[in-house]
Design a protein that fits this description.
By secondary structure, the protein is α/β, with parallel strands linked by helices. The protein is 45% helix and 13% strand. The two termini are 18 Å apart.
């Protein structure tokens, strides 16, 4: 029988005189002309996991599509883009201003791959001191630029699946599959990060003395957008005051549990990422 984690008190109890600022403001840099949905999935999961306020920074050309289809609670920040509809390095100054009012940064979902976008990601990671969740295409931007991770002065959570882990650190995929625990611990330690090595029974580690293997989740969660949902939950837990390892550990557990609850209703075959989001409150309740 699955042993469920009990969430820490700071995620379960709220003061009578609370305001949204008590639970963190999050900036999500996400989306592109091909992947506007990733930004929405990440933002909605962040709100469902308890963040106080969420702003999504997206290429200007998809801002209207985001506004039209988003939940009413999500704010948007239209940003300069490349000719192909991806975030441009010229967006840095506007992002820098937005970060002054932000508690946590989530970067990567649906950014797509572009030289200018990758340069933007690297500049942000190098210069910000905020806690940061790095996912998806933002991980690809750091390939061959790993020194930037060591230069970052704040908390870093990396969320690679096996292929992204291989590309980021230049490791053979077969070796990772055979040595998941060893690889995750080594590179988390070497780059002073928390790593969630995603997959069946995702590994979460700070590379030092903190390590866990997640037991929730199911094969139905191998669907487009599932990782974006996880990144949003992590960001929400960071914004509510958890340390990087705890945020990663509890977010992975809640993400998988929400997917398990959704699969009971939708089946694993019919499960989509938005189903996981809809069950986040149920998972939080069960673990309270």
């Amino acid at each position: 029988m699955l042993k469920l984690m009990r969430l820490p008190t700071q995620l379960l109890q709220r003061k009578i005189n609370s305001h949204k600022g008590d639970y963190g403001s999050i900036l999500i840099l996400a989306g592109s002309s091909r992947f506007s949905g990733a930004a929405l999935l990440c933002a909605e999961s962040t709100l469902r996991a308890g963040a106080g306020s969420v702003t999504v920074g997206v290429p200007a050309s998809i801002n209207q599509a985001i506004i039209k289809n988003k939940t009413s609670e999500v704010m948007t920040l239209p940003l300069p883009e490349t000719k192909t509809g991806k975030l441009s390095l010229t967006a840095f100054s506007k992002i820098k201003q937005a970060l002054k009012k932000t508690a946590v940064l989530v970067i990567g979902p649906g950014l797509d791959n572009d030289k200018s976008t990758h340069a933007l990601v690297r500049k942000i990671v190098k210069t910000t001191t905020l806690p940061i969740v790095i996912d998806a295409d933002a991980l690809n931007a750091l390939n061959h630029h790993l020194r930037i991770l060591k230069q970052h002065q704040g908390k870093i959570i990396l969320t690679p699946h096996t292929k992204e882990m291989a590309g980021l650190f230049g490791i053979d995929i077969a070796f990772i599959k055979k040595n998941r625990k060893l690889v995750a611990k080594k590179y988390a330690k070497d780059y002073n990060s928390v790593i969630i090595l995603k997959g069946h029974q995702s590994i979460v580690t700070d590379g030092k003395n903190k390590f866990c293997i997640n037991k929730t989740g199911n094969p139905g969660m191998a669907t487009a957008g599932s990782g974006d949902v996880l990144s949003g939950i992590i960001g929400a837990f960071l914004a509510q005051g958890l340390d990087a390892f705890s945020a990663a550990k509890y977010a992975t557990h809640i993400h998988g549990l929400a997917g398990d609850i959704a699969a009971e209703d939708k089946t694993q075959i019919g499960l989509i990422a938005s189903d996981i989001i809809s069950r986040i409150p149920d998972a939080l309740k069960i673990c309270s």
